[in-house]
Amino acid sequence: MPWFAPAYPAFSPTAHPYLTIRPLAPQEAGPLQAVFQDLSARSRQLRYHTPLAALRPAMVRHLTDVDPSRHVALVATLGGRPVGIGRWLRDPFRPTEAELAVEIIDRWHGAGIGTAIAAEAARHASRAGVQTFVAHIDPVNSAARAWARALGATPNPDDPDQVRLAVSALAPGLPRHHPAA
């Protein structure tokens, strides 16, 4: 199954009526750990760009150090079970830019849940003044790269892992902004 749904928008509330997406509370590690445990070794490598058997305590603290003005993490649950995490983290030197990261448990790859989380992240980021997402996508992750390209992402010529994407491309109704390459 693909890492992200290749067609946008692929998610439909009628297809997944029990899906909820909500912000992660500060230091709320349970959903983060649950999603991580349900990722395959390959999915962990693609998301974290390194093989990880477990999240180190310092990583958990960093990933749950949320604040609506600079770092929002969202958890997607199906029937109350965490199935994905998405987040944006503002660049302190470029306040209209933020890094976007999404991870979905393997069982739900390709179902559009990543797209739904990314769209919700875009709504939160837009309200905080973020206009451009920067995503680090492993070059072998062809599904995620195709998803980003379909949304108008542009590659960074100086970093093959990095793409730039207008926040407005992820959520209909947001003001349009085209990121500079």
Explain what this protein looks like in three dimensions.
The structure is a single chain. This protein has 181 residues and is α+β, with helices and mostly antiparallel strands. It has a single domain (19-169), classed as Gcn5-related N-acetyltransferase (GNAT) (Aminopeptidase), CATH 3.40.630. 26% of the residues lie in helices and 28% in strands. The protein has helices at 30-37, 41-48, 57-63, 113-127, 142-150, and strands at residues 19-23, 71-78, 81-91, 94-104, 132-136, 154-156, 159-166. It has a 7-stranded mixed β-sheet, with helices on both faces. α4 links the parallel β4 (94-104) and β5 (132-136). The radius of gyration is 15 Å and the shape is globular. Residues 1-11 have low confidence and may be disordered.
Layout of secondary structure:
Layout: E1 19-23, H1 30-37, H2 41-48, H3 57-63, E2 71-78, E3 81-91, E4 94-104, H4 113-127, E5 132-136, H5 142-150, E6 154-156, E7 159-166
Parallel strand pairs: 4-5
Antiparallel strand pairs: 1-2, 2-3, 3-4, 5-7, 6-7
In short:
The chain is α+β, with helices and mostly antiparallel strands and about 180 residues long. The chain has helices spanning about 30-35, 40-50, 55-65, 115-125, 140-150, and strands at about 20-25, 70-80, 80-90, 95-105, 130-135, 155, 160-165. It is globular and about 35 Å long.
For the structure shown, list the relevant keywords.
disordered N terminus, Aminopeptidase, alpha+beta, 181 residues, seven-stranded mixed sheet, 28% strand
**CATH topology tier name:** Aminopeptidase
CATH class identity: Alpha Beta
Integer tally of domains: 1
- What general outline do the C-alpha atoms trace? globular
Query: What is the N-to-C order of secondary-structure elements (H for helix, E for strand)?
Result: EHHHEEEHEHEE
In total, the number of strands is 7
Sketch the major β-sheet: 7 strands, mixed
Could you give me the name of the CATH homologous superfamily? Gcn5-related N-acetyltransferase (GNAT)
Radius of gyration: 15 Å
Q: Strands of the largest sheet, in order across it?
A: 1-2-3-4-5-7-6
Portion in strands: 25-35%
How does CATH name the architecture? Answer: 3-Layer(aba) Sandwich
